[in-house]
Amino acid sequence: MTLLNEAQIEQLKEITTHLRQVRQEKSIRIEEIAAQTLIRAGVLQALEEERFEELPEPIFVQGFIRRYGDALGLDGNALSYTFISNVVRQDSNNNHKNSDNKPNTYIPLVFTYILLLLAASTGLLYILNPPQIASETVTPEVNGEQSIVTNQ
Predict the structure, then answer these.
(1) Mind telling me which residue stretches traverse the membrane in this protein (predicted)?
(2) Which distant-in-sequence residues (6+ apart) come within 8 Å of 16 by Cβ?
C-alpha cells in the first residue's frame, strides 16, 4: 500500500477493529466473508490483523471495506467513505505540492484538433485535385509536318 499518514492509519485501524468485532459477535468465519464478498481471505486477514503494508492501493481498500461492511449487515458505504475521505484529502494536498514544482505545459486539445483538420483537408485536396504536370503531346501531321504542342 502507498504510505499513509498517521491519521489515516489510525482511521483504518478503527474501521478494521470494528469490522472484526462485528464478525466475531455474529460468529462468522473469515472464509465465509471471503466467499460472499469475493475478497481473498488473506486480504481480509491482513485487514483485520493490521498488516496494511500487504494491502493494495487505498482505493481498493475502500472497496474491500465497503463490501466487508455490507456482508456484515453494516453500512459499507459510510465505513468506506470515512477511510477514503482522509486518503483523498491527504493525496490532494500532496498533488498540489508536487504540481507547484512542475512547469505548466498544458496545450489545449482544440489546437491539436485544428492541426489534424488542416492536415486532413490538405491531403484530401491533394488527392481530389492532383497537380497538373506539363506534358508534351504530338499532333498529327499537317501539310507534311509534325508539330509538338506543350500544355502548361
Answers:
(1) 106-128
(2) 47, 48, 50, 65
Cell numbers at 89, concatenated: 484529502
Structural domain for 118, as ranges: 109-151
- pLDDT (tens place) for every residue of the chain, 152 residues total: 556 677 778 888 899 899 999 999 999 999 999 999 999 999 999 988 988 888 888 888 889 999 999 999 998 888 888 876 655 544 455 555 555 555 656 667 888 889 899 999 998 888 888 777 766 555 556 565 655 655 55
For residue 51, give every residue at least 6 positions away whose Cβ sits within 8 Å of its Cβ, in sequence order, or none.
Answer: 45
- C-alpha cell at position 51: 498488516
- Nearest 5°: the CA angle 10, 24, 66 is 55
**CB proximity list for 11: less than 8 A, separation 6 or greater:** 82, 83, 86
Shared domain for 90 and 133, answered yes or no, is no
Report how many domains make up the chain: 2
Distance between CA 89 and CA 104 in Å, rounded?
23
